[in-house]
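Hello, quick one for you while I still have it in my head. A protein chain has come my way and I'm curious about its shape. Can you walk me through what the C-alpha cells say about the fold? No rush at all, and the record is pasted right below.
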Amino acid sequence: MLAVSCCGFYSQANDNLQLSGFGTLGLTLADSDIYGFRYDVSQPNGVYKDEIDFSVSSLIGGQAEFTITPEFDVVTQAVIKKRFNADIDDYIELAFLRYNPSPDWTFRVGRMGANMFMMTEYRDISYAYTMTTPPPEFYGLIPHRQLDGIEAIYRQPVDRGILQASLSYGRSEAYIVSDSFEWNVKLSPILLMALDYEYDNWLFRLNATRAKTTNTSDPGIFVEQFISELPESVWPNKDKTLNRIKSKDKYANYYGLGFKYDNFIWQVQSEIAYIDYKTESLPDSLNGYLNVTKRFDEHAVFAGISSTRSHFLNFTVPPLAKQIPELEENFLSYVNFYGTNQTTLSAGWRWDYAENWAFKLQLNRTQPQRGGDRIYLKSVDGGHENAVHSLILSVSFIF
C-alpha cells in the first residue's frame, strides 16, 4: 500500500531497515503571457511564455521503513520540492507508526496521506504512473496531502477479489496561493472514509470526506470586519451576508468515486468528485478525469481529458457600498476566488529506457473560462486567453 512499495524496489540496509527513494527532473514550457501554468493551487510559481522552468515539475524524496516487531513498524518519508513558506516539518510527507495485528486489520497513527484519491499513496512518485503528473483539474484543487491523526483499515476477501474499508480522523493544513494573497487553510477535524474493491484487472473506489475550516484568509478577515462595521443604510441585511460568506468554522463535504482497469497492455483510469462547501464564499465544484494508456514493451502512449466546473455565486454589492472601491474589489475577489472552470486535453509518451528509469513527454491544451482559472496564476496585466498550451518533459526514477 505504501507509495514506494508499489514500485517493487527497495534498498535494504539490514533485516529491519528498508531504505528507498524516488525523484523527477522535469522541464515545463508554456505559451501564455497571462496564465502561469502549474499543477497545484499550493505551488508558489507558474510557468509563463518564454520561460524555461525546472521547479514546477521536479522533486526528490526518500523513505525509510523500520520493522520493530512482526506486528509493528515505523514509516517516514520526506519530499524536497519547491513549496510556499515551508518549514522543515512541511517536507515530511509520512511519519507514522503502523500496527498489523492480523492480515485483515491495519492501524496507523501519525502523519499519513489524506486518503481522498486513488493515487494518494504515490502521487509524488511519477515513476509509478504513466502521466507526467496527476491531472491538475482533479488532484490540484485540494492542497491538503497529509493527515495528522489515526487510521483503521480492514480487508476481507469477497468472491475472487479483495474488499478494503478505511476510516481516518485527524487534522491538516496547507497553503492556497493565488495572485493576490495566500491562505494557510487549517482543517480540523477531518473524517475520511474509503471503500476499495480489487478484482482481477479492476479496481473500484468510493470515498467521502468531511472537514471543518478553522480559520479565514486575510481578504476574508478584511471583508468581514469592514462589512460588520458598516451601518445598515450602506449594506442592508449585512448580518445575513456575513453568515453566507463566512468561511471559518464551516464544513466542506467531498464525495468521490473512481475505477482503474489494467491488463498490462491497456490501462483505463478515471475519478470524479463533487465538493460541497457549506459557505457561499467557496463555490461547489464537480471535477473529474479520464486517462487511457496503451503499452508497447518499454513504450507507452496515453491520452486524457480532465475538467473542473464550479457553481459560481452571484453577489450584488449594495449601491452605497460600491462607492468604497477597496471594499467592492476585495469582496468580489473573496467570494469567488476559488472558482474553477477549465478543461484540459492531454497526450503523451513514456519510455522505460533503463531499469528504474523512465522518460516522459506530455502536451496539454487547457481551455480556462473567464473567472474560472484559479488553478493557474495570472500575470499582473490580467486579461484572458481561450487556450493555454504546455509541454512537460521529465525523467523519473526510483532507487
Notes: Residues 1-13 have pLDDT under 50 and may be disordered. The radius of gyration is 22 Å.
